[in-house]
């Protein structure tokens, strides 16, 4: 994002500097109060209150509740590090962590490769590409719940799409098999989000100066060479921003997984957000759920800070996906 | 747009483009044809064939299940959330841009810090707060946290746009003796109208499609919104596959209409925060 200093306050400040020579201090002071002038702080209060109550307080609250016992209804009692000890020796938490990492890394790889290629493709000026692009975005119109329910039916061995091709291999119960369920989820997640990311890459490709390609052509660089030496390096910043978005977002994929598999079969898709939900809202162990919540938060903050450092730019802002 | 440089024959890109078209269109085609198929025929017919007897009975069954109530709830929640977000973020963004002091900078930093935090990890305390303030199982329970969660991105986008307004325009209105409120109302808001549309679309899609908050913060059918009702149908209809997919189609229709009418704004809204 841009952080240009077009702020209104700049111009009065400049005029102070110009006035400084031989102007009485009193005038300066008068000018300075003018600088601080502006709308009253009340303008920000409603936003800060809303953000405070439903974002800042919950952030502190999740840490506090991780030290408590609570079943979601009754009294909250102090438990110290009890929940933490219990969670850190629970194989399901580590299972969730492992699954979350696999989901995050594999879907990041798959989505990035596809999005870059599709983004480059859509950035071309041919008319048919623009027409195809209109269809490419259709998955974005579906809610995660709608996608999850659709694919659950579409993948059913009885009446799903596998039957259409007459291949027995396609008629497996992919979602009911612990070996395949997570991979199916990764594909469905990619189906949902590749359109968004390819859109971002498309925009970035269009901003690459044409002169770079012209120069490359004069130097006799072929198409492949142009792609690897010009297009890819020029997409560096988009890559950093977009990867943060994908990775932080994938820490919170909940809707899709919950509706499609509910964490099963045999916990093979019980990623961390799902583990948190099941503990809190099915097993009524809010303390344990809060511990998992803190783990997700820390992961998200660490990952986005790391990516921020790696990309070496604070131009980058990430955002969360979903909710 | 100067894109002559990209105008070339690209075999790999072309193949991939057509392949991706299939990947996108075939599942959507399956959803639509299955929703039009007779309930008995789904087990026998080829799932991609055109239904022998096109029937809208699945849609009828969906509407008989109070679906209109859920649509109404979703509309209320979405509109109320967007109105609330705009009402709180416009003045806040205006203050951040117009008032250059430590406090406004602090407020901005606090809000923007929320961008990189996976807020969904805080559902347990959110549930606690909603229960404590007595809003559990009301539409307000969905509106307030949904609005709070998109404040960071909304404020960031609005601030970026407000900063592009030339300061001479503000000064001109100040000289005329306009109050801050009227400068905001008559200058700032009209100038950033495209940004307001963009953030409204982004925020509205988030709320309209949101599943987690309805799942943990509402309970009764009276306060059910569309995504949750889809999930309920899935459990309740089980074998009525056309019915379930008809509900999916109905849930997407309003957004599809919006996409057809204002594709440009939709795309801007979807990628809000990345492109300007």
Q: Would you kindly provide a written description of the structure presented here, covering whatever features stand out?
A:
- The complex is a heterodimer of chains A (323) and B (276).
- In chain A, 64% of the residues lie in helices and 1% in strands.
- By secondary structure, chain A is mainly alpha-helical.
- A two-stranded antiparallel ribbon of chain A has the order 1-2.
- By secondary structure, chain B is mainly α.
- Chain B has helices at 11-35, 57-64, 67-98, 102-113, 123-132, 140-149, 151-162, 167-175, 180-191, 193-209, 212-217, 226-237, 241-261, 263-270.
- The relative contact order of chain B is 0.13.
- Chain B: Keywords: Cell membrane, Membrane, Transmembrane, Transmembrane helix, Transport.
- Chain B: This is Sugar ABC superfamily ATP binding cassette transporter, membrane protein.
- Chain B: It comes from Bifidobacterium bohemicum DSM 22767.
- Chain B: Belongs to the binding-protein-dependent transport system permease family.
Task: Write a short abstract of this structure.
Chain A: It is a multi-pass membrane protein. Chain A: Keywords: Cell membrane, Membrane, Transmembrane, Transmembrane helix, Transport. The complex is a heterodimer of chains A (323) and B (276). Chain A contains 14 helices and two strands; from the N terminus they run αααββααααααααααα.
Task: Provide key terms for this protein.
heterodimer, A: 323 residues, mainly alpha, MetI-like fold, two-stranded antiparallel ribbon, 2 strands, B: 276 residues, disordered N terminus, MetI-like_sf (chain B)
């Amino acid at each position: 994002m841009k952080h240009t200093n077009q702020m209104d306050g700049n111009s009065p400040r400049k005029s102070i500097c110009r006035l400084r020579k031989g102007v009485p201090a009193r005038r300066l002071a008068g000018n300075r109060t003018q600088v601080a002038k502006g709308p009253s702080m009340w303008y920000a209060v409603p936003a800060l209150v809303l953000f405070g109550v439903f974002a800042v307080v919950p952030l502190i609250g999740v840490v506090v509740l991780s030290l408590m016992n609570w079943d979601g209804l009754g009294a909250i009692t102090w438990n110290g590090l009890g929940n933490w000890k219990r969670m850190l020796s629970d194989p399901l938490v580590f299972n969730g962590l492992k699954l979350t990492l696999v989901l995050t890394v594999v879907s990041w790889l798959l989505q990035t490769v596809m999005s870059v290629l599709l983004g480059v493709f859509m950035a071309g000026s041919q008319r048919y590409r623009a027409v195809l692009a209109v269809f490419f975005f259709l998955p974005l119109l579906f809610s995660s719940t709608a996608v999850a329910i659709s694919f659950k039916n579409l993948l059913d061995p009885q009446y799903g799409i596998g039957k259409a091709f007459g291949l027995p291999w396609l008629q497996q119960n992919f979602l009911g098999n612990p070996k395949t369920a997570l991979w199916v989820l990764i594909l469905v997640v990619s189906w949902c989000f590749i359109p968004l990311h390819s859109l971002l890459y498309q925009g970035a490709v269009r901003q690459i100066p044409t002169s770079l390609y012209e120069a490359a052509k004069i130097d006799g660089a072929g198409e492949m060479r142009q792609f690897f030496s010009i297009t890819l390096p020029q997409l560096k910043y988009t890559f950093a921003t977009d990867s943060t978005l994908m990775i932080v977002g994938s820490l919170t994929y909940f809707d899709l997984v919950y509706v499609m598999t509910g964490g099963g079969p045999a916990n093979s898709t019980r990623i961390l957000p799902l583990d948190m939900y099941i503990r809190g809202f099915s097993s009524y162990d809010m303390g344990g759920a809060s511990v998992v919540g803190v783990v997700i938060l820390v992961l998200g903050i660490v990952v986005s800070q790391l990516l921020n450092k790696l990309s070496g730019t604070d131009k980058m802002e990430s955002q969360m996906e979903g909710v | 747009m100067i894109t002559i440089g990209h105008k070339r024959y690209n075999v790999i890109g072309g193949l991939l483009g057509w392949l991706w078209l299939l990947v996108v269109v075939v599942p959507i085609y399956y959803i639509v044809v299955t929703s039009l198929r007779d309930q008995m025929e789904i087990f026998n017919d080829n799932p991609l064939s055109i239904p022998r007897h096109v029937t809208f009975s699945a849609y009828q069954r969906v509407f008989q299940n109070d679906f209109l109530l859920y649509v109404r709830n979703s509309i209320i929640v979405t509109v109320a959330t967007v109105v609330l977000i705009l009402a709180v973020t416009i003045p806040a963004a205006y203050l951040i841009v117009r008032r250059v002091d430590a406090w406004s900078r602090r407020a901005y930093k606090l809000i923007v810090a929320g961008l990189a935090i996976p807020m969904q990890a805080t559902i347990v305390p959110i549930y606690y707060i909603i229960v404590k303030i007595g809003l559990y199982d009301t539409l307000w329970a969905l509106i307030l946290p949904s609005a709070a969660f998109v404040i960071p991105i909304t404020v960031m986008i609005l601030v970026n746009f407000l900063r592009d307004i030339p300061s001479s325009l503000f000064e001109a209105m100040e000289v005329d003796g306009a109050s801050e409120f009227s400068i905001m109302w008559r200058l700032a808001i009209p100038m950033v109208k495209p940004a307001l549309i963009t953030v409204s679309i982004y925020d509205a899609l988030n709320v309209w499609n949101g599943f987690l908050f309805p799942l943990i913060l509402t309970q009764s059918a009276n306060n059910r919104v569309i995504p949750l009702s889809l999930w309920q149908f899935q459990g309740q209809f089980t074998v009525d596959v056309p019915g379930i997919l008809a509900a999916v189609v109905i849930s997407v229709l309003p957004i599809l209409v919006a996409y057809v009418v204002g594709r440009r704004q939709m795309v801007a809204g979807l990628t809000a925060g990345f492109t300007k």
